[in-house]
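Bug #2210: token dump truncated for F-box domain-containing protein?
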Amino acid sequence: MELSPVGRWADLPEDIAVAVASCLQEADVCALGGCSRSWRRACDADCIWERLFRCRWPSAVASASPVQVPQRRGWKALYISQHRRMAVAISNVVEFVGSSLNNESLESEYYLKAIADLALIPDIGFLDVQFFLFSRNHSAIINLIGLHYSIASLHVLPTEVSKALQAHRVAERVVCVNLVIRWFYGFRLPDEYECHRISLGELTVAEGAEFFAILNRGAVHTVFLLRISLVNVDK
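Reproduced locally. Full output below:
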């Protein structure tokens, strides 16, 4: 009797099944491992999770301290442990931002502190930003912080950030940025207000680079005292 397609997939030699699973990303490996016992054995292979770990946290692998792989549980256990550690560390930043909001607005002091706190997390990478900060479950403020951090600190190409925003369906989210200009090289001036309304996707092109430059220049040289009002508006 001819085997069904499901049966043929389940009866693949283990080395071929491992080769198939090795071409997938984390979520797909986990989904495939739930199809059958044979696929679960294949998807638990150490070589698969070593590759996923090295791709997601290259700085951890390249650091002076050797990666400590649990002898009995292997690379999958190490991957899960590192993922949980990242989840806790980044959630602390998200909670800080939430507690610093005032009428859905965030002052530049807290905005820049959140970005600085992300930089203090050891081995954080762009995939971590995508997992935990580009979610639609968060506000556009959190999405923007992840976007800014990826470009300014992780030096991810804006085109790659744009692709990630689109993949997570947050590129069309709009933020309203209000700049309050009060000081210029130590001299008090009458308050001037500028309001910029821009989508997250647009922040990955030239106009976004100009905005980030203004923000960072104000923080470093006290040319501006900024108050940023970031409004989560979905188009």
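Output looks complete on our side. The two ends are 55 Å apart (CA to CA). Marking as cannot-reproduce; reopen if the truncation happens again.
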